[in-house]
Automatic annotation (TrEMBL):
Gene behind the chain: rlmG
Primary enzyme class: transferase
Organism annotation: Pseudomonas benzopyrenica
Chief location bin: cytoplasm
Catalytic activity: guanosine(1835) in 23S rRNA + S-adenosyl-L-methionine = N(2)-methylguanosine(1835) in 23S rRNA + S-adenosyl-L-homocysteine + H(+)
PROSITE patterns, sorted: N6_MTASE
Cell compartments where the protein resides: Cytoplasm
Keyword Transferase: yes
Pfam families: MTS (PF05175), RLMG_N (PF26049)
All copies of domain Methyltransferase small, residue ranges: 201-371
Keyword terms: Cytoplasm, Methyltransferase, rRNA processing, S-adenosyl-L-methionine, Transferase
Sequence ranges assigned to domain RlmG N-terminal in this UniProt record: 2-181
Database matches in InterPro entries: DNA_methylase_N6_adenine_CS (IPR002052), RLMG (IPR017237), RlmG_N (IPR058679), RsmC/RlmG (IPR046977), SAM-dependent_MTases_sf (IPR029063), Small_mtfrase_dom (IPR007848)
Protein name in UniProt: Ribosomal RNA large subunit methyltransferase G
Keyword Transcription on entry: no
Length: 376
């Protein structure tokens, strides 16, 4: 893999989760462009830098040791990548402070570097939170590859920070320079809420939750077919989002024991709030994690999953395949993985490599609900 070379460091960087012969690299031209711009503007050791949405630590690791760096984002995998890449390049674990997007960062900051995220609601929430967190004369620079940089990103910077000037494109990357101006405090529109009739639930959704404004159609297809009569079974909602699958299943199975995991901190935050609203003090384990990597082997009887088909802007079934492998390891000998997927993805073929039996529970013109039984 190529090294990231910048005025600050030459780094070897890995993506997370690890993947054998990964064809993708852990940085892009927007990272390089942004680091070059920071160097040209000068960076003193006392500068307080906030890095937002640094997918694999390319920016924060490059600047570690050159300034006081805080990194914040909504991906637990990004946090793992940051820690791994600091270690790989001989830097101390505390050389960068990581703050999950579900928590407040502590300013004031002299320099804010933003990788524009796929979900603009996350960007809007982050910009709203910057109110009162910028030091006098602070610089705010956003970056992205042209194909992933919508005009609306500049509009949000203009609305919440100040006038925006766009750079020339370099290697298909562009920078947006926002000049901070006094702005009145804005009440965030997040979290949003929507109501389900069956089952009757009101769901809280923080800014980066998938399908924040309403139930996604895959989950809608899955809900009527969730298993019942589980007794005290140990159940996990893998990639839980706002927790709706676990909530619906828990309503129908009052004695079952639930674990909810997602790599999005805002999803976990939403799921926790939704569980508490629905069940009060009913015991549950909810955590941000690399799927079921931390789950003890053979410790679950049932796993529910609506797997993702992308990581940031990269589309593919790599994460889903990894989830299926984790499910196989975490399920008991007679355990079951229930999932919903687009018909065209052909998940049943992959599942037959990991489980003794794969059944179709139901189908719509677009989705199939599958049950994979007895992990190999």
């Amino acid at each position: 893999m190529p090294s990231l070379v910048s005025p600050f460091a030459t780094l070897e960087l890995d993506r997370q989760p690890p993947r054998r012969d990964d064809p993708l690299q852990a940085f892009d031209a927007a990272d390089e462009y942004l680091l070059q711009q920071v160097a040209e503007g000068g960076l003193a050791p006392a500068t307080r830098v906030l890095v937002l949405n640094d997918a694999f630590g390319a920016l924060a690791v490059s600047l570690a040791g050159h300034a006081q760096v805080t990194s914040s984002g909504d991906s637990h995998l990004a946090a793992l990548a940051l820690a791994a890449n600091l270690a790989r390049n001989g830097l101390a674990a505390d050389a960068v402070t990581f703050v999950p997007a579900s928590e407040a960062t502590g300013g004031p900051f002299d320099l804010v570097l933003i990788r524009v995220p796929k979900t603009l609601a996350l960007l809007e929430e982050q910009l709203i939170r910057l109110h009162g967190q910028l030091a006098p004369g602070a610089r705010v620079i956003a970056a992205g590859m042209l194909k992933h940089l919508p005009r609306a990103a500049g509009d949000l910077l203009e609305r919440h920070i100040g006038p925006v000037q766009a750079s020339l494109a370099v290697k298909k990357a562009r920078l947006l320079f926002a000049t901070p101006e006094a702005r009145p405090a804005v009440t965030s529109p997040y979290p949003s809420r929507y109501r389900l009739d069956a089952p009757p639930l009101t769901l809280v959704n923080h800014a980066n939750v998938f399908c924040r404004e309403g139930l996604d159609i895959g989950t809608r297809a899955f809900l009527p077919h969730l298993p019942q009569g589980l007794g005290q079974a140990r159940v996990a909602d893998l990639g839980c989002g706002n927790g709706v699958l676990a909530l619906a299943c828990a309503l129908a199975n009052p004695e079952a024991q639930f674990t909810l995991v997602d790599e999005s901190y805002m999803a976990v935050q939403s799921a926790q709030e939704n569980w508490t609203a629905a069940f009060g003090e009913r015991p549950v384990a909810i955590r941000a994690a690399d799927g079921l990597a931390e789950q003890p082997p053979r410790s679950l009887e049932l796993i529910l999953c609506n797997p993702p088909f992308h990581q940031q802007q990269v589309v593919g079934d790599f994460l889903a395949w990894r989830m299926f492998q984790q499910a196989r390891a975490a399920l008991s000998e007679q355990g079951e993985l229930w999932l919903v997927g687009n018909r065209h993805l052909g998940y049943h073929v992959k599942l037959r490599r990991l489980f003794r039996r794969v059944e179709q529970i139901a189908a719509t013109p677009k989705f199939v609900i599958l049950k994979a039984v007895q992990p190999l």
